[in-house]
């Protein structure tokens, strides 16, 4: 049993590393891909958009399927699809072919993130769960940290296709390890039916919602309205059907689950755009190179990777609600401090504040994940894992939509130049102020939930 727990932890960790690594590494390679395929910015953006659409829309359905037919089975298929589609990227002959493969990667990613944390929860008891989840979350941040660094090296020396080769080989090796050494299967909702109509309405709703966020400044609000329509149909359906893909009672009757997910949504909505804003500030307003800006930004994910296992283990002993709320408070302080950033702010001060944000997020993320996964019955573990991943994506989209609107409000169509630096700085500081307010609401959402140990 002990060996199986260790193997599951390793498989889940590598699986969770793959997607953030691929996404951040690919961002560095976009200019090279654009040059090779003579692709414009819009086509290149679809390399990111197509992946987000596929993964976000399919997370919850795959989480539910995993609860019914087996979490290991869905994880294996996800690793295989992600690995093979990555390897096929080596032979891409056009940008359209590459976009299609990114859709397949998104499907594989939905299978992975809808099951990896659920399997960890199934294997580790309540008093060891936080540590395991903390290590898993640390690998996500390691992927985010290594992506720009290793992706830059691979692209520079071996070309952008080497990123797909590295991800593909890693995915296939992880698949083989899991297939050979993970012996048990977990399907706590076995025998229950799958709600196809509910899944279709949910997928359509999520597709419209995510695309609406992505195109928010160019008429995307109509897609958000369409998303609300299909979302209403979905909720009505889930109330009526005997075996829904999302049991609405998890949101209405389980305060720990609903408030923990709301806290995660607000936290990601408040913090995801920090890297974009500081990168923009350093390169466009302060004249730093992309490499130097990237090194400065590494401070935050590195601190998150170091402290996530520690805070996760701590949440096995201290109530996750307390730790997560404290982490949200520290994050809020960091965002407030960044709202006073100026053109002559010390780089050391920026790095220290990134460290503060990284610690705050580490203190929030692992305990909050532990709270979510420990607040539901085992038969809902796949759905809970998928729900958390979906909330993360929606929070990220919300964060980017907010700063896009604010930057456009303050700057308009003015070019990035020294003449308009004060306007850009106003947009950046306003974005941090709004993010801090979101984070403040997140503190109240985090405090509003029940104690997990009392519930269990």
Automatic annotation (TrEMBL):
Keyword Transmembrane helix: yes
Bilayer topology annotation: Multi-pass membrane protein
Molecular function per GO: transmembrane transporter activity
Entry's localization field: Cell membrane
GO CC terms of this entry: plasma membrane
Keywords noted in UniProt: Cell membrane, Membrane, Transmembrane, Transmembrane helix, Transport
Domain Major facilitator superfamily (MFS) profile: 8-454
Spans through the membrane: 7-30, 42-62, 74-93, 99-121, 133-157, 163-182, 194-214, 220-236, 257-281, 293-311, 323-341, 347-365, 386-411, 423-448
Listed name of the protein: EmrB/QacA subfamily drug resistance transporter
Top-level taxonomic group: Archaea
């Amino acid at each position: 049993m002990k060996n199986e727990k260790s193997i599951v932890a390793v498989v889940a960790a590598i699986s969770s590393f793959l997607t953030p690594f691929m996404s951040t590494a690919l961002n560095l390679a976009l200019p090279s891909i654009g040059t090779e395929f003579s692709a414009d910015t819009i086509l290149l953006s679809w390399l990111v958009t197509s992946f987000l659409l596929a993964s976000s829309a399919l997370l919850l359905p795959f989480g539910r399927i995993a609860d019914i037919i087996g979490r290991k089975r869905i994880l294996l298929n996800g690793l295989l699809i992600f690995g093979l589609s990555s390897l096929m990227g080596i032979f891409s002959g056009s940008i359209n072919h590459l976009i299609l493969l990114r859709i397949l990667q998104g499907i594989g990613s939905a299978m992975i993130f809808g099951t990896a944390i659920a399997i960890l929860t199934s294997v580790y008891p309540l008093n060891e769960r936080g540590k395991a989840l903390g290590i898993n979350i640390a690998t996500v941040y390691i992927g985010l940290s290594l992506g720009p660094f290793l992706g830059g090296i691979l692209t520079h020396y071996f070309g952008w296709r080497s990123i797909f080769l590295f991800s593909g080989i890693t995915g296939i090796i992880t698949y083989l390890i899991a297939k050979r050494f993970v012996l048990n299967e977990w399907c706590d909702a076995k025998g229950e039916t799958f709600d196809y109509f509910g899944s279709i309405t949910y997928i359509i709703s999520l597709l419209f919602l995510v695309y609406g966020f992505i195109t928010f400044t160019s008429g995307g609000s109509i897609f958000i309205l369409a998303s609300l329509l299909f979302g209403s149909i979905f909720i009505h359906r889930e109330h009526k059907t005997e075996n829904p893909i999302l049991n609405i009672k998890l949101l209405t009757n389980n305060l720990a689950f609903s408030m923990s997910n709301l806290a995660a949504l607000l936290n990601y909505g408040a913090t995801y755009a920090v890297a974009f804003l500081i990168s923009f500030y350093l390169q466009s307003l302060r004249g730093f190179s992309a490499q130097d800006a990237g090194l400065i930004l590494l401070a935050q994910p590195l601190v998150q990777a170091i402290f996530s296992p520690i805070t996760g283990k701590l949440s096995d002993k201290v109530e996750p609600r307390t730790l997560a709320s404290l982490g949200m408070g520290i994050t809020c302080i960091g965002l407030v401090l960044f709202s006073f950033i100026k053109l002559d702010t010390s780089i050391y001060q920026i790095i220290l504040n990134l460290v503060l944000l990284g610690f705050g997020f580490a203190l929030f993320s692992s305990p909050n994940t532990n709270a979510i996964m420990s607040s539901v019955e085992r038969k809902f573990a796949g759905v809970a894992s998928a729900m958390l991943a979906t909330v993360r994506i929606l929070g990220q989209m919300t964060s980017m939509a907010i700063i896009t609107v604010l930057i456009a409000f303050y700057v308009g169509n003015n070019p990035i130049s020294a003449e308009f630096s004060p306007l850009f700085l106003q947009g950046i500081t306003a974005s941090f102020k709004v993010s801090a307010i979101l984070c403040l609401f997140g503190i109240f959402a985090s405090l509003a939930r029940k104690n997990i140990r009392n519930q269990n």
